[in-house]
Amino acid sequence: MTRHGRRGGAWVLALGVALAGTTGCRGDAVPADGEDESGSSGPGSDPDAGDDTQGQTDDAGDETQGESDTDDPPSPEDAVPPPGGLRRLLAHQYLSSIEYLLGPEAAEAATAPLDPTRGTFDALATLSSVPSAPDIEGYEDSARAVAWATMEHPERLGQWVSCVWVGPYDNGCYEALARDFGRLAWRRPLTDAQVERLVTVATTAREWAGGEFSAGVEYMLMAILQSPYFLYLVEVGDPAPAYRELTGVELATRMSFFLLGRTPSASVLDRAEEGELDSDEGVRALAWELLDQPLARSTVTRFFGELLTTRNLPSKGKSAALFPMFGPALAASMAEETRRLVDEVVFEDDVSALRIFDADYTFIDNQLAALYGYGPVAAGQWMQVPLPEGRAGVLSLSGWLTMSAHNTVNSPTRRGLFVMEQLLCNDVPLPPPRVNPEPVEPAEGQTLRESLQQHMQDPACSGCHALTDPIGFGFEHLDPIGAWQALDNGQPVDASGNLPGVGEFYGADELAALLVDQPELPRCLVDKAYAANLGFIPDAPMAPALDAVGESFAAADHNLKHMLVELIASPVFRLVDEPK
């Protein structure tokens, strides 16, 4: 079919809118100058940049906000939900929604602006993300390309609105397209006025194109896909006795993006409009059904890829002189190794999520076999193998170890900081200003541990490093790309460590055994899952509801799918406060 989109179609976008400086001590978590340290975060980062740690508060409340006036412990209903409003689609959500609505060819033609960066999780930037002029132009270009691709393969659109495929090609078909496809794309029924405006777009375009029906379809698609109703999640809710309750379609949409990373299906919208999500049972039933879909696996593994920063491995740099085997192929294998472990634990074995952190096995291909010291693996093949001695769980795998080290040397500080903040949700004090962020370079014949222990004697640095380095020292047998090292700078490695408040350990395997026994780990995972998917950093007023989810998580033997269902059923998922 003929393509009708032209540059300067900003009038379509306008109609759619109408429709609708870090520092730290040497060896800490701060990237050294000139290093490619994508994805790392830690103390010293912008306090407004989404340091997603448990117990954080905003200017509107202190740590006592949301507590009951009685001596009874607060209940989930005492929790204060985050404010309602708009959340901009992340790039992968945009592309996945295009694919569901219009097929793989349309998704391949689509482009999405890069997600802004704010903290560990992409979603943390969606609340304050205002599209720039290049973003708006990018959405326009993408909508045009998607419309063109759709007209080359109209059968996919025809499954939603049959007349665009088989006729009749009249204004009634334009109206059906606006009502039926518009409802799917905007995730709610359109008003009569909105339908009328979209039909006007189509009929005007058809007239301009000399009567060709497809021109109207193309321009209507462009208008729908550039509308804020498609590009943003609307989560305003209806007034309720306390706070605001998400409408059925708003809740269905939030659930679908939370578990599948894309717009809700037609059947899910139908069920929401029929009132099936008005009850706890209906919400839980739909959540379990969504978790059975293949896309749920991608959503869960994406979450761990963000949490562990392994999704940033393709952009990670290492010294070619020191680590000649590290390159794009090995980095891709490292990321896939982590993905396979998470998928195996959560979906294939359906066992405790804590197994991710103390598993005695991993998955390797030929690239990783060489790194871990196994024999060759056939090209393109993966196999499950027992982890070598001294390793246990995802923190002993090459991907996280690579991301948590400098380009030339290990970083016990980064590794310990990650455990404290990202796995146990403990706050680590910010480093003092104007200190040197360069990694420590050991003297001749001195191990990295010895040089850092000397460095920790500096009172300006000891406060932070005493909380992180004793944990990170336990990884010293594992080098900056995760290979085993018995010697460091020619000296025997000492991998003894201490988990503050818990006890001593030796090596990554003993640390894993300690971590999975700490109740803070699964409770922290609840907070991280909430932040990663909804873009809100849990704070004290939300805690009563999230504590209840944590208790249910523990009672279910830390089954991650169970935790996600209970998180969806909680008040801080289904309610919102007044939009700000």
Topology, pairings included?
Layout: H1 10-19, E1 85-88, H2 91-102, H3 104-109, H4 133-152, H5 154-158, H6 163-166, H7 171-186, H8 192-208, H9 213-226, H10 228-231, E2 232-235, E3 238-239, E4 244-245, H11 248-259, H12 266-273, H13 280-291, H14 294-307, H15 328-348, H16 355-358, E5 361-364, H17 366-372, E6 383-386, H18 398-403, H19 412-423, H20 448-455, H21 459-472, E7 487-488, E8 491-492, E9 496-499, E10 503-506, H22 507-515, H23 520-534, H24 543-555, H25 560-569, H26 571-574, E11 575-576
Antiparallel strand pairs: 1-2, 3-4, 4-11, 5-6, 7-8, 9-10
Helix pairs in contact: 1-9, 4-9, 7-8, 7-9, 8-9, 11-12, 13-25, 14-15, 19-21, 23-24, 24-25
- Low confidence ranges: 5-70
Strand percentage, roughly?
5-15%
SS content category: mainly alpha
Query: Given the C-alpha coordinates, what overall shape results?
Result: globular
Assign a percent range to the helix content. 40-55%
* Multimeric organization: single chain
The average pLDDT is 88
Distance between the termini: 46 Å
Main beta-sheet annotation: 3 strands, antiparallel
Strand order of the largest sheet: 3-4-11
Task: List how many beta strands DSSP finds.
Answer: 11
Radius of gyration: 26 Å
The number of helical segments is 26
Q: How does this structure look, described?
A:
The chain is mainly α and 580 residues long. Among the domains are: 85-233, no CATH class; 298-515, no CATH class. It has helices at residues 10-19, 91-102, 104-109, 133-152, 154-158, 163-166, 171-186, 192-208, 213-226, 228-231, 248-259, 266-273, 280-291, 294-307, 328-348, 355-358, 366-372, 398-403, 412-423, 448-455, 459-472, 507-515, 520-534, 543-555, 560-569, 571-574, and strands spanning 85-88, 232-235, 238-239, 244-245, 361-364, 383-386, 487-488, 491-492, 496-499, 503-506, 575-576. Helix 1 (10-19) crosses helix 9, helix 14 crosses helix 15 and helix 23 crosses helix 24 (543-555). The longest helix is centred in the middle third of the chain and has 21 residues, at 328-348. The protein is globular and about 80 Å long. Mean pLDDT is 88; it is low at 5-70.
